[in-house]
Amino acid sequence: MASIVHKADGRIVVKHKLDGKWVYEYLGRGPAAQELAERKVFDLNLVAGPRPQSTPFGHLAVLYLQSRIHMSDRNKDILSYKFNSIIFPALADIDATLITRAEIDKYVTMRRTTPRIVTNSRTGHTKTLPLPSMTTIQGEIALILIVLNWAAYHCDPPLIADNPARGYKKGKITHVITDPPTVEEIAAIIAHASPHLKRAFILDLMCGARPGSSELFKLTWESVDFSANTITIISANKGGIPSRDIPLSRSLREHLLIWREEDLATGDKFIIHYKGGPVSRVSTSWASAKLRAGITRRLRMYDCRHYFVSAMLEGGADLKSVARMAGHVDETMVLRRYQHITSQMKRNAVDMIPDIPLAPPGTTGTTTKKTETIKFKQKQVVNR
Predict the structure, then answer these.
(1) Which distant-in-sequence residues (6+ apart) come within 8 Å of 241 by Cβ?
(2) CA distances from residue 6 to 104, 260, 273 in whole angstroms, order as listed
(3) How does pLDDT run across 204-257, given as a tens digit for each residue?
(4) CB 45 within 8 A of CB 33
(5) What are the residue boundaries of the structural domains of the chain, listed by start?
(6) Whose CA is closest to 127, among 335, 287, 297?
(7) pLDDT tens digits for range 67-89
(8) In terms of Cα–Cα distance, which of 25, 22, 32 is closest to 1?
(9) Count H helices, E strands: the chain?
């Protein structure tokens, strides 16, 4: 078995056997050398370890996860859940060399027609989940292809000779655009929301932060500058701008002033808090508020962010300002996601062009050479 040895001077060494003799490879010092050593030990032990006669897809997926030494524990947990709960029941025991494009098509059909039934481990109650969207299914297909590609082309030696699903076309997704909440729905949700959800809901509607711990739930009272009349949002790591200052509307400022007075008495640091601590999710309280408000259509907390952007566009705001306040690096995302609104903006812009008066009846506004000649001769006759 290969192993990592840390020398007293900080050097990192990989110890393994080659032709029956122990070999020591010095890889340097520091985090980069440590990562390289971990990769090398994984590959060496993979080659030396027992190889199954067939290669089940589940075996490859587990090895793939073990090889992701640079991946955070949270992301590993997310991938493990997707594999164990969703993909493995259908593909874990199938030989990876048999997962062809036709097999993936069968998987897609199964996911689109067969609802998942999940059991609550604490209460034992079962629940049937709604059928997933094509976007969700395509994310699962991407994971399957990643594992097959890794096993065929990125292992040394390869675990399978080739990716049997190579060249699979996932197809184009038709995204379902959910309308943002209406004025009536906003009033109904606020009336039935718990205090922490009410704050999250109003903030999301009026500053457009991405709901969740990446942006909205990270907001603290230090993020608010009442003298400059702005709230600073540290952007999620999505390739956009690192942070953005959102001007406070009159209404949002009034809400924040009331909330600050409440929190000064309790000493709460986060604007959105529950039982004295920060909030990581509001899915349960959101579903409950929608139910009590009588809203049955598909409506997510993320659609409050869409309300923020849509309201500005419909109010005539320029695309660059809207994109910056939404946290995008340029206007491309706004143009793509809000095409129905930006098309109306173009129509409104064209309608601002002054009208050109119509020509009097019976005239065309054009002349020909023949009519010009006749008029010239008539003029000569008159002059004589």
Answers:
(1) 235, 324, 327, 328, 329
(2) 45, 52, 45
(3) 999 999 988 889 999 999 999 999 999 999 988 877 788 999 999 999 999 999
(4) no
(5) 1-48, 50-176, 183-351
(6) 287
(7) 888 888 878 888 998 999 999 99
(8) 22
(9) 15, 10
Q: Are 90 and 107 in contact (CB under 8 A)?
A: yes
Say which amino acid occupies 185: E
Name the percent of the chain lying above pLDDT 90.
Answer: 41
Whole-model pTM? 0.57
Nearest to 105 by CA among 84, 90, 118, 88: 90
CA neighbor of 198 nearest in space, from 295, 279, 269: 279
C-beta of residue 12 within 8 angstroms of C-beta of residue 22: no
Nearest to 229 by CA among 244, 207, 247: 247
Distance CA(140)–CA(250), nearest Å, equals 44
Instruction: Look at residue 22 and give its three-state secondary structure.
Output: strand
Farthest CA pair distance, the chain: 124
- Structural domain 183-351, CATH architecture: Orthogonal Bundle (1.10)
Long-range contacts, stretch 67-76, CB < 8 angstroms, 24+ apart: 67/39, 67/42, 67/150, 69/35, 69/38, 69/39, 69/42, 70/35
For residue 82, give the DSSP letter.
I
Of 253, 145, 151, give the one whose Cα is nearest residue 203.
253
Top-level CATH class of 50-176? mainly alpha
Distances from the Cα of 221 to the Cα of 199, 206, 212, 242, angstroms: 13, 16, 17, 19
Strand pairing class (230-234; 224-225): antiparallel
Q: Are 177 and 340 in contact (CB under 8 A)?
A: yes
